[in-house]
Design goal:
Blueprint: E1 30-34, E2 50-54, E3 70-73, E4 78-85, E5 98-103, E6 108-115, E7 117-118, H1 120-123, E8 132-134, E9 139-143, E10 145-152, E11 175-176, H2 186-191, E12 215-218, E13 241-246, E14 254-261, E15 264-270, E16 287-292, E17 294-298, E18 312-317, E19 324-332, E20 335-342
Length: about 350
């Protein structure tokens, strides 16, 4: 039955979840998958989407050669409720760059970002606001790699203690397991391409604990995740974001992720991997974190080149090379004072 609620005009059908009977990229085409929860550059708070990379493409290289592109598939049937061109400032290719939302039900949907070519069907509704049905396994576009996420409006993550902070990206608090809905053997085949080995294999993004330092923070009076009005969600909106969280590939590693560290977004591990931000509260007083870099380690013990698939089993910190220090103090359960000192030691 058609959903009678406010989403019915989008052409979605029913509620609940759906089984994914196709992978988003054919298994044979996948070089590697990275899960949700990484913190990279302007993605200061843990990222709500994972990354698929094709075998024909070197991550980080250009996206101008269609021969390096792989087909992108709908994992289940549904209604494409949005096909939007990415703003020029975020576009990955001169060929094109699109964000696609597929509602598999009225409450359960997948989001693809950085799709560089669209199928003819999707091209026909791009940037029009129109909707169109797709079938499971249908090719919806092509790209050498893309962002992929699964969202379930009937699930609200408990580790975001002020959900209103995320109104700018309303789907974020409903992020679900990016592997959890694929039928076997597809689920196992995708997990075999996933570099993260520690549970949960699909990653985690919500680390807030009320009254503790751990989790996401936003500068006062800057509209939460939206950022300052003058940025209008363009380059730099993240400058008022801050996170004390755990790494997306090695969750044993504490990360301090800052939207404005010496004028740019930066992520660091901390010397001796301590103190744990989950243990810091108002009674802890002034806390110093010395900032250090790190490398991921593959199961053979070697450093990961970030280009090829590897099973990431841990990380190596460079504690002897202090890159800076931050001071933080919890003033109230949901208020901190924070200052960064680049190129200083404690």
């Amino acid at each position: 039955a058609q959903d009678p609620g406010p989403q019915s005009n989008r052409g979605c059908i029913s509620k609940g979840t759906a089984a994914f009977t196709y992978p988003p990229m054919r298994i044979v085409d996948i070089r590697m998958i990275e899960p949700i929860g990484l913190m990279i550059g302007g993605h200061v708070t843990p990222i709500d989407h994972g990354y698929y990379t094709s075998k024909a493409w070197r991550p980080g290289s250009g996206r101008e050669d269609p021969s390096e592109f792989a087909d992108i598939l709908a994992p289940a049937s549904g209604t494409v409720t949005s096909v939007q061109s990415m703003p020029a400032v975020y576009s990955s290719s001169s060929i094109g760059d699109y964000r696609i939302v597929i509602h598999h039900t009225c409450t359960f949907y997948t989001i693809y970002i950085h799709v560089n070519q669209l199928s003819e069907k999707l091209q026909s509704i791009a940037d029009t606001g129109k909707t169109i049905r797709v079938e499971a396994g249908e090719v919806i576009g092509r790209a050498p790699g893309f962002d992929f996420s699964v969202h379930n409006d009937e699930v609200t993550l408990q580790g975001f203690i002020v959900p209103k902070h995320y109104d700018a990206e309303s789907w974020k608090i409903h992020t679900d397991d990016m592997f959890g809905y694929f039928i076997e053997p597809i689920r196992s085949q995708l997990l075999d391409k996933n570099v993260r080995q520690k549970e949960p294999r699909g990653g985690k993004i919500d680390y807030d604990i009320d009254g503790r330092l751990v989790g996401n923070w936003f500068e006062e009076n800057t509209n939460g995740y939206f950022g300052k009005e003058e940025y209008q969600r363009s380059i730099g909106y993240w400058s008022t974001h801050l996170a004390f969280a755990y790494d997306g590939l090695d969750p044993d590693l504490i990360i301090v992720s800052m939207g404005d560290y010496n004028g740019e977004a930066s992520q660091f591990a901390v010397k001796e991997n301590a103190p744990d931000p989950a243990s810091i509260d108002v009674s802890s007083g002034l806390v110093r974190y010395e900032l250090v870099s790190w490398q991921y380690l593959a199961e053979n013990g070697e450093e990961w080149n970030r280009m090829d698939f590897a099973k990431i089993t841990g990380s190596k910190r460079f504690d002897e090379q202090i890159g800076g220090v931050v001071l933080v103090q919890m003033l109230e359960d949901r208020k901190i004072k924070f200052e960064a000192f680049p190129n200083k030691k404690a």
